[in-house]
Design brief:
The chain is built from 8 helices and 7 strands. With 232 residues, the chain is an alpha+beta fold. A hairpin with a 5-residue loop joins strand 6 and strand 7.
Length: 232
C-alpha cells in the first residue's frame, strides 16, 4: 500500500505561483519578516517585558501574504519559509524575474514526478552514493534505490551486502555510483519498495536545472537497474 507523503515540490510550485500572482516584493518581504522573528526565549521576553508581539506584527505587516498562505495551507504544508534556500531562491528571482518561468515549470515537473524532498547542493561533483537492491528468493527485485542526473554518472558495480537484512530469505546487494561532472545541475533519486511504496528526492543547485533531462515516470517506477549504469 502506497504511503501518502507531503511533497516539497508542491510547496515550491505554489511559492512560485505566489510570486507570479502577488509579485516578488511582497513575497520576499514576507519571508524576510519571518526570518527576522527572534528565537522562542527572546520572543517571550519581548512579549512579556516590553509588550512587543513579533508574530502579531508579522501578520499585520503582511495581510495579503497571510491570506494567500492560509488559502493554500495544504500545499504549503511542507514549506519552511524561514529556510535559507527559500530566501536565496527568492533573492535570485528578485535579481532576475525572468527566471520565474523556468523555476515554476521545473517545480511543476518535479511535482508531476511526485518528488518528496528537494535539497540544495552547490557542488554535485563527485557525489558518491551507495544504493541497496533487494531481491526475493525468485530473484525478483522488490526494493531498489537508483539515481538520475544530467551529468556524467559512473557505475562502480554491484556487490553482495552482509550489513543487514530486514527481509527474510532475500538477497541484498549494493550498487555504487559517482557523479563525475562539474556541469551536473541535478541528481534525482528514486526509491521503489513493494513494502513502503515509492519515494523521490532530488539534489539541485537551483531551480534553473535542465528539466528536459529528467527521467519519465515509467523509468522512475521501474524496478530495473538503469541502463545508464554501465561500466566503461
Amino acid at each position: 500500500m502506497e504511503i501518502k507523503r507531503t511533497l516539497d515540490s508542491t510547496g515550491w510550485r505554489r511559492l512560485f505561483e505566489c510570486v507570479k500572482t502577488e509579485g516578488i516584493e511582497p513575497v520576499i518581504n514576507f519571508v524576510a519578516d519571518i526570518r527576522s522573528i527572534p528565537d522562542r526565549i527572546t520572543l517571550i521576553q519581548r512579549a512579556t517585558l516590553y509588550g512587543k508581539n513579533d508574530l502579531v506584527t508579522l501578520v499585520e505587516k503582511n495581510p495579503d501574504m497571510i491570506k494567500y498562505v492560509r488559502e493554500h495551507k495544504e500545499e504549503f504544508d511542507s514549506m519552511d519559509f524561514a529556510d535559507e534556500s527559500v530566501f536565496q531562491t527568492l533573492d535570485e528571482l528578485s535579481d532576475d524575474i525572468t527566471l520565474l518561468k523556468t523555476y515554476l515549470e521545473n517545480a511543476r515537473k518535479l511535482e508531476d514526478l511526485k518528488v518528496n524532498l528537494i535539497r540544495f547542493e552547490n557542488n554535485l561533483y563527485f557525489l558518491n552514493n551507495r544504493h541497496f537492491v533487494v531481491r526475493n528468493r525468485e530473484g525478483k527485485i522488490i526494493e531498489i534505490t537508483k539515481c538520475y542526473t544530467d551529468g556524467i554518472i559512473k557505475f562502480r558495480g554491484e556487490s553482495l551486502c552482509n550489513e543487514y537484512n530486514e527481509y527474510d530469505d532475500c538477497c541484498i546487494s549494493v550498487i555504487s555510483t559517482r557523479i563525475d561532472d562539474e556541469k551536473a545541475s541535478f541528481v534525482l533519486f528514486a526509491h521503489n519498495s513493494e513494502k513502503e511504496g515509492p519515494t523521490r528526492y532530488i539534489n539541485i543547485k537551483d531551480f534553473g536545472f535542465d528539466s528536459k533531462k529528467l527521467p519519465i515516470e515509467e523509468e522512475l517506477q521501474s524496478y530495473e537497474i538503469p541502463k545508464t549504469y554501465i561500466l566503461k
